[in-house]
Structure formats: structure tokens, C-alpha cells
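As a warm-up, study this chain.
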Amino acid sequence: MPINVGNTAFMLICASLVMLMTPGLAFFYGGLVARKNVLAIMIQSFMSLGWTTVLWIAFGYSMCFGPTWHGIIGNPLTYAFLHGVNLHTMFTGNNAGIPLIVHIAYQMMFAIITPALITGAFANRVTFKAYFMFLTAWLIFVYFPFVHMIWSPNGIMAQWGVLDFAGGLVVHASAGFAALASVLYVGRRAVVENKPHNIPWIALGTGLLWFGWYGFNAGSELRVDAVTASAFLNTDIAASFAAVAWLLIEWGYGRQPKFVGLLTGAVAGLATITPAAGYVSPVTAVIIGIAAGIVCYYAVAMKNRLGWDDALDVWGVHGVGGCLGVVLLGVFASKAWNPNGANGLLHGDPSFFVKQVVAVVICSAWAFAFTYGMLWLINLVTPTKVDRDAEERGLDLTLHGEEAYPVGL
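Now compare it with the structure written out below.
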């Protein structure tokens, strides 16, 4: 198969956009935490940039896309350290004419950002050693298997007919419910500081995430065609409508329009449209965006009432948003907008809706259960939670010996 220069160039750009999302996430989270914890939260995202790449090249890609073991996981040795991959090895998944190394690079960027999303839930209270162990185990036992089951052609959920265009299940539901398990296991912060220290950083992070999300969603078509264009437009539509919906609700309750609310709503819309972006119409994207703004806002409000210390609202935004998007895909999917997709509940196929709901339950339950058990095991090896003195002094100094804002400079 000859290389398609256009598709290859497009996918390299999309991989770059998705890579940019992880630094964007670091700024988004960095702006939300207190000044004394900025570096501690940002290093967790950048650590994923480095360490996830190591695991991905060593065996991660092979576990995700290698020959299947009962549709659950790929053979970790097939592409270990890119064994057998050369300049002429082509990706054959959709006849797009892109080299396999492009697909390896693109999917690696997804693997990098997914565990980084979870870090916002346990911000300001987890030791770096425990996070390092968490990052490694979570990728191997949660992320890699679900990529294989849903995105590998031989995956058990893919064979069953479950659809997830760009990661509502694989990325957002799994990360969101892992975040909830982390919150419940690690417990509340001893020093609760929920006031953002730098709102312009949050805006910068949101802008980078929003920009990168076009590569995240449109790039998931793995080629340039009309579906690519509709996924691109749907991404912006859902983010915009969700941002406005969140702002209006919060404005109605608080009598003031909040910038952080607008930004958070946009991220909720982006997470919610992700599984459906390439399978639904732009009008449906409007509905999904509005639903994301409303449902995710009240999910965060419920979390606050229940006293869950999800510091940066990972569960309410990503977990609930991802699950909502997968379920709404089961309702609104239309082959008129993607012949390779499915028809949802409103287009005559209730069985597809059932499959999407079952997939949400399985993915969320496994991510939650494994994360909770894994943190318990990690805590037997090394403390997962810092002590009160470290929280009071700030993790930047106590864990890393560095300061974002040194006194006197």
C-alpha cells in the first residue's frame, strides 16, 4: 500500500495537537490549585509525557493493538520495542495509507493524557512515589486492556458492536471513575483550599485543551474525509454550548457570571462529545453540548453535597461527561453521518443503545474497582498520602524542593 501523503501529514499534525493537550492540562490544573502546590500537580502531567512513552514503546502499543488474547488484551511481545516495525510497515486498520509509526505516535498521545486526567482528583495530597507506581499499574491493567477491547478490531467490545469514536469510554469514563476511587480511598485533604490561584492559567490550559481536542476527535477518523470534518465541527459546537449552559446555570444561582465556570463547562462539553463526535450530526452536537453543561454541573454539585474531595472535579466533568456521551451516542448515532457507525435508539436500533449502556457500566466499574484495590496495594509498599505538615507547607517544597513563586524573586 503506498503512503497517502495528505493523510499522513494530517495525522502527524493531529498527534502533535493531542500531545499539546497534556501541557495544557498541566496549566489547567496548575491554575486551579494553590500557589504552594503548582509544581506538584504540573509535574504529574509531564511525568506521564515521559514515563508513558517509555511503557508505550516497550510493550504498551503491543498490548493495545497486538494479536488478541480472547479479545481482552494484545500480545505484549509482538511490537515490543517496535519489533518488526520499519519505514515500510503500513497501518492497515482503515486503508488510509499511513505508516504504522504514525498510528503508534498518535495513539501514544492518548495514552499519555488519560492517566494525567486522574491527577486532578487527588491534587495536593498524594506522594510522588505512589503516583509513579499508580501511573504504571493503571496503564497496564486499565488503559491498555480497554484500548484493545474497544479500539482494536479484534477486541471483544469492538466485535460486539460497541462504538467509542475518540475516547468517551477508553479515556474519560475510565479516568473519571478511577478518579472517584482515588478520592474515596485517599480521603479528604487536611488543608482544603478550593480557590484557584491563577485563573488566567486555567484559561490558557482550557485554550490549549480545546485546540488540541480537534486533533483528539477529528484525528480519530485516522484519515481526511467528510466524517473528519463533521467530527471537527461537532467538537467546537458541543464545547461552546456546554460552556454557555454551565455559565448560565451558575449565573442564575450566584448572580454573577463566573469565568472558571465557563471554562469548566467547555471542558465538560469536550469530554461528552468525544465518543460521539464522528457518529452524529451537528444538530445532535448542540443537544449533547447542552446536556453536558447541565448534567456535569449538577454532578459536581452532587459531589460537593456528598463531601467527596475531588479537588478539581475530574469525576463530575470527565467521568460523568464521558459516560453521558457514550449513552447519548447510543440514542443519537446515525449511519447518515457515518456509514461505518451505527443507528442509535432514535434511528431504529435499541440494541445498540443497550450495548453502549452495558459498556459504560463495565468500563466504569472495572476502572473504579481496580484503582481502589491498586491504591490499597501501593499503600502497603509506600504511603499514598502525604502527612498534614506536608499539606500545610505545600507539596512543591516538601516533595520536590522547588517553588513556583520563590519569596523575594
